[in-house]
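Quick one before lunch.
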Amino acid sequence: MGIEKLIRKELLSFGGYSAAASPEVLEGKIEVAAKDMIKIDANENPYGCSPRVNKALAKYPQFNIYPDDGQEKLRGLIAGYAGADIKHIVCGNGSNQLIDLLIRLLVNPGDEVINCTPTFGIYSFSTKLCNGVLVDVPRDDDFNIKIGKVKAAITPKTKLIFVTNPNNPTGNLTPEKDIVELLETGVPVVLDEAYYEFSRQTVMPLTGKYENLIVLRTFSKWAGLAGLRVGYGIFPEAIADFILRIKIPYNVNVAAQVAVAESLKDKDYLLASVQKLVDERQRLNAQLQKISWLTVYPSQSNFIFCRVRNVDAQDLHKQLQMKGILVRYFDQPRIKDCIRFSVGKPEHTDALIKTLRAIGG
Ligand SMILES: *Cc1c(COP(=O)(O)O)cnc(C)c1O
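Model of the pyridoxal-5'-phosphate complex:
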C-alpha cells in the first residue's frame, strides 16, 4: 500500500496554485542573471518598500519574542488607515490567508461559492480545498460581471460571492451600483480591493450599511511588502471575531507588523510610488496599443492585460522569459491567448516594448 491511500480522495486531482516562477529558480536556465531579470509577472512594487521599513527591521531588538496574537497595535493602525473600527479588522499572512480563513469559516462540504471568471485563483483554490462547490459565472467579453447571471446562480447553498475590484488579471472595475445589487441579495459578498491604492475606488463607506459586505486589502502591492505577507480584512463584527478565533496563532509575524507601522508613517512616500506606477501604466498602455497584434484592455490597477494575436501567448511568455522578462501567462479557459504585464519602471516598459517588437513585429 502507498501512503497516498490516506490522502482525501477529492484532493488527488487537486492541481494547486500555479504561482509565478521565482528569479532564483530561473537563474541559469535563461539568458539573463537573476539580478537583471525584469519581473513584471506578479504585480509587485518595483520601487520596493519604504526605506523606513529596512531601517526599522535592521535595528529591531526582539525577533526572539512572539508577536501579539490579537494584533491589537497592528489592527489599531490599520483602523486609522482604512477608516474602520478595530473590531471589524483582522490581519492575515497576506490577504490570501484571510480568503482561506473566511472560506473555512463559512463553507461546508457541498456549499457553493460564486466566482466571477476569469479572476484571481485563490477563491477557487480554497473552495476546492474545503470541498465546497465552485460556481463559475463567466464575465462578458469585456470582463464585466453579469449581475443578472450572478443573481440567478444564487441558491440556498450559496455562502459567498467573490468580486475582485479592480479584477485580477483583467484590470477593470465593477460599478458600485452592481455591487449594491449583489449586496441587496443578502448573500455575503467579498470585495477584494488588493489594488485599491491604484484604483482609488472602494466600497468601504458601504460597510456601515451592509452586514454581508467584507472588504479585503493588502500591503503586498502598494506598500511593496509582498515578501513579508500582510493583508487585512474589514469584516462584520461577528465574522471578525470568529476569524480571530480560527486563525493559527501569531499568523502575522513581527517583521510584518513592524513593516506596516513604518509604512503607514511613510504613506506619502509610498503613495508617490503608486502615482509613478499609475502614470507609467498610462505610458505602457499607449505603447502596447501601438503593437498591432495585441488587444489591450483598460486597467485601473498596476498591471495591463492583453490578448495576443498571431503569436501563441504561451510561446510569447516563454520567449520573453528566455530574454529575462517575466510576465504572467494563464492556462485557463477564455484567456489562453492572453498575457498580463505588471507596470514596472519606465526602463522596464522600454525593454518590454523593444522585446515584444523583436518577437512579433
Ligand atoms: C495580489 C492579490 C492579493 C494579495 O495577496 P497577498 O496574500 O496579500 O499578497 C489578493 N487578491 C488579489 C486579487 C490579488 O491580486
